[in-house]
Amino acid sequence: MSEGIEERLLNKIKRVKLLVLDVDGVMTDGRIVIDDAGLESKQFDVRDGHGLKILMRFGIAVVLLTGRRSRVVEHRAADLGITEVHQGVRNKTEIFTEILRRLDILPEETACVGDDLVDIPLFRRSGFSVAVADAVPEARRIADYVTVHGGGRGAVREVCEVILQAQNRWQDVAVRYEFA
Question: What class does CATH assign to 2-130+138-175?
Fold first, then answer.
């Protein structure tokens, strides 16, 4: 994947130490199912999850930062080993700034993945901004990179692979899983 990425963008991706993900529309396809009892469900792509686990194994921290609040997100994060989850966030920029300060990470060392207008301020502050393929046009226009895959359908896995390839870690993944 990184073969088609221009050198300027590769240099940005090489610096990434933190991946910040929106949830609805990024880790899911954006649909929310609520049954008669009021129970909410969402669908997550298992390959996206495995991509995140691989990324974390190679030292990239992952944070979920979402405007909605859902127990489903807590369960998915726990399943993946993501310990930093911020839900019900009204001002993503404020939380993003606090995370960077606490983790001692520079804005240019972050990648942010989003799908909607609310994610654009983070795109402008992060080192590598990513809009999923089915994001709103405004987000796609501003993003450094637009995924081939849609939210909840492989976009997160694609981003994980792009980061690992740009950082010359994909060969380590190949060795681990014996596909090279």
Answer: alpha beta
